[in-house]
Description:
- By secondary structure, the chain is of the alpha/beta class.
- The protein folds into two domains: 27-224, 2-enoyl-CoA Hydratase, Chain A, domain 1, CATH 3.90.226; 228-274.
- Helices cover 45% and strands 13% of the residues.
- The chain is built from eleven helices and nine strands.
- The protein has helices spanning 50-63, 87-94, 99-118, 134-141, 169-177, 179-188, 194-200, 212-224, 228-240, 246-261, 264-274, and strands spanning 27-31, 34-39, 71-76, 123-126, 130-132, 144-148, 152-154, 191-193, 205-207.
- The strands form two sheets. Strands 1-2-3-4-6-9 form a six-stranded mixed β-sheet, sandwiched between helices. A three-stranded mixed β-sheet has the order 5-7-8.
- Strand 2 (34-39), helix 1 (50-63) and strand 3 form a beta-alpha-beta unit.
- The radius of gyration is 19 Å and the shape is globular.
- The relative contact order is 0.11.
Amino acid sequence: MRHLPGEPHHLPGNRKDFAGYSPRHFMFGLAQGVATITLNRPERKNPLTFDSYAELRDLFRALAYADDVKAIVVTGAGENFCSGGDVHDIIGPLTKLDMPGLLAFTRMTGDLVKAMRACPQPIVAAIDGVCAGAGAILALASDIRYGTARSKTAFLFTRVGLAGCDMGACALLPRVIGQGRAAELLYTGRSLGGEEAERWGFFNRLCAPESVLAEAQGFAAALAAGPTFAHGMTKKMLQQEWNMGVDEAIEAEAQAQAICMATNDFHRAYHAFVAKLKPQFEGD
């Protein structure tokens, strides 16, 4: 492999303009303030490699500084989302690594989830077909999930002799679908069909396969046109309040809301309301 687990891909951490950004291991597009990240190995159902893990991690870290990206969509090419870690490029080599190498890899994959959760822009996953293993974690780490009835989501780590506690699954999944349902999926590794996934709250919405990406992009565009500073604050508090007591959370939200009240967007919204107009938010 050309890059060791955890090796950076030299994407500047203070990059502000992502127009024209061209990654090496997936596709990237930017329109109306919405960045669309497309895993693009459709012939193998879009598996991840050491390189694509690391480049995705570095991209989400850099997006924290982006001025032109207001929301993000993650999807897969060719009627599948992501089949997880590539059996030949990742699973095979992992069987030959020593413990320090294995830990470097598992920390690197966990860092991708940390980067997604710390990224201030809302992330919308558009999921069709196979969404398995690390692919299911990418969906889980997103803020909103649009799926299809034919999609199949599986946290299949136990199927290959590994624990279900991968990349934060035991922390994130119970918060999305509940402890008992999360335990079932993480113990068994079974597939969660699209209709069941929506019923359980894993999917926010079911869409037709031919429209799931467009609907996810439309929702992301609506977020991008909204008060993006406030969206970033909402995402931060959704993350941070997991580890707070109620009194601490109420105080943290008081501080966060006071900061938002000092923004120009808050003042724009007030003046638009008085004038009976729709507010035009600018994210400042």
